Amino acid sequence: MTVRMRKHHLVPVLLLTIVCSIRSFAQSGIDTILPVRGLCIAAPQKAGLDAFTNFITKELAPRQVNTLILRVDYNYQYESHPELRDSNALSKADIKKLVAACKQSKIRLIPQVNLLGHQSWAAQTHNLLRVYPQFDETPHVKMPEKYVWPNPDGLYCKSYCPLHPDVHNIVFALMDEICDVFESGAFHAGMDEVFYLGDDKCPRCSGRDKAELFANEVRKIRDRLSMKNRELWIWGDRLIDGKTTGIGMWEGSFNNTHRAIDLIPKDVFICDWHYERPDKTPVLFAAKGLRVATSPWRTPAHALVQLNDMLSFRKGSTPEMKKYFQGMVQTVWSPAQAFLDEFYGKRTNPDAGPNTQAACFRALFDAIRDVK
């Protein structure tokens, strides 16, 4: 997920007001427990596995984090498709260490593999399209030696073609296998920032409704998971009308996929990320009958507003609506070890000021602790 941020100035009085408002919920005696109190982060590398399991038991558990989404992608020694493994990928025994730490800490563990979009990054093609280039939605768009944005091809990240007859044989095998080894009842498919879809030059997708293409891919993935009573989680940006809302092309859709919000199954769980502003789009998803959690990133002031909003939505909703407002999922977009180094003060960025991932994580879960 790419992040484009403008500088925001933290106002101490504003922060104090937000924190006091959050604490007032705890004092009111009203049930404001958040069903989902989550963290989404890259799965650790082998060398950092022990440090990360330590982080689960010593940092996440005491903060009452109850959901951990690990972005695995190809950082696992897949047996179904070993050709797609990263070098030095995590083994089954490595994953079982993470599973055990989460069980001990009563944390729900959910694996993520990016499906549909995010099949490349900058000048690098990721494993699926590198090994199976025939799945590429836009094979005519060549990967540059040096990536810049914007560019004439509108290249951000590659997508696989959702109508290729062989693609799901591969991705479903990966999905089944990673859920099995994680012993997980849910799977996060990513599906954010899909800019290449229904391309005019694609022999299968050309001329098709992009909302229907997106919704049909969501449904296919969801239906596969449901065969083993697993649920699908995705990012929510492609389901928001970026033009009408003014949210823009990154946190919303400019290619009409937003209409898929009325076409996808209602049991899909939405992670609604907003980083530049604490936009109140959880109301949109809840009103459509979709469970939603708000996902902040690195700005503590925004995370506290978003938490306060989520608590307000839950407090002010009818019982029928309250169940859709599920909670918070903090996102981290650096490697796991880099985040741990920042969290423990081993690495600092003097230019970041107060807006860091570690600072946002601490502020959010300190505030959630006060609610509890």
Automatic annotation (TrEMBL):
<keyword id="KW-0732">Signal</keyword>
<feature type="domain" description="Glycoside hydrolase family 20 catalytic">
    <location>
        <begin position="84"/>
        <end position="295"/>
    </location>
</feature>
<dbReference type="GO" id="GO:0004563">
    <property type="term" value="F:beta-N-acetylhexosaminidase activity"/>
</dbReference>
<dbReference type="InterPro" id="IPR015883">
    <property type="entry name" value="Glyco_hydro_20_cat"/>
</dbReference>
<dbReference type="Pfam" id="PF00728">
    <property type="entry name" value="Glyco_hydro_20"/>
</dbReference>
<keyword id="KW-0378">Hydrolase</keyword>
<dbReference type="InterPro" id="IPR017853">
    <property type="entry name" value="GH"/>
</dbReference>
<protein>
    <submittedName>
        <fullName>Glycosyl hydrolase family 20</fullName>
    </submittedName>
</protein>
<feature type="signal peptide">
    <location>
        <begin position="1"/>
        <end position="26"/>
    </location>
</feature>
<comment type="similarity">
    <text>Belongs to the glycosyl hydrolase 20 family.</text>
</comment>
<dbReference type="InterPro" id="IPR038901">
    <property type="entry name" value="HEXDC-like"/>
</dbReference>
<dbReference type="GO" id="GO:0005975">
    <property type="term" value="P:carbohydrate metabolic process"/>
</dbReference>
